[in-house]
Amino acid sequence: MSKPLYDAGGAVVGFLLTGGRIINPAGASIYWVQQKTGNVYDYTGNHKGWWEGDHLIGAEGGVLVWMRGARLPVLASLPSLPPLAPLPSLEPLRPLPSLPPLKPLKAMSWSDEPWGDE
Fold first, then answer.
1. Residue ranges per domain, the chain?
2. pTM of the prediction?
3. Distance, CA of 104 to CA of 49 (rounded, Å)
């Protein structure tokens, strides 16, 4: 099962799959959610943010992406009609994650951090 992820403008920028894998619209694995802690990592083990149940916050506390129906601290754009989820590629091995930084206070803003294959 996959759920579309939206950016600040309401565009679909990825999909959250069962098990915590996040893929881009082309089906490539870009991030994964550590289920017990909510920490989000890329496939080189770098910490990217925190999963907050229905949205991802970045290092400075701003919202990076969200799911439809999310309770956000910011005003969200009307979400676009999601495309069909792509067939996900094989997931790479999840690396040993880096130590996460201290979690910031939630900001009432959008994150300006890059998303996906930066």
1. 1-118
2. 0.90
3. 10
37: left (phi over 0), alpha (psi -120 to 50) or beta: alpha
Q: Is 5 exposed, middle or buried (0-12, 13-18, 19+ CB in 10 A)?
A: buried
Helix or strand or coil: residue 18? coil
Contact 85, 33 (CB under 8 A): no
Measured CA to CA, the distance from residue 63 to residue 101 in angstroms comes to 17
* Digit-coded pLDDT (tens) for 27-57: 999 999 999 999 999 999 999 999 999 999 9
Task: Give per-residue pLDDT as tens, 56-103.
Answer: 999 899 999 999 999 999 998 999 999 988 999 999 999 999 999 999
- Residue located via tokens 């916050």: 57
Residue among 1, 4, 2, 5 nearest 115 (CA): 5
CA distance 113 to 118: 10
- Residues facing residue 51 across a β-bridge: 56
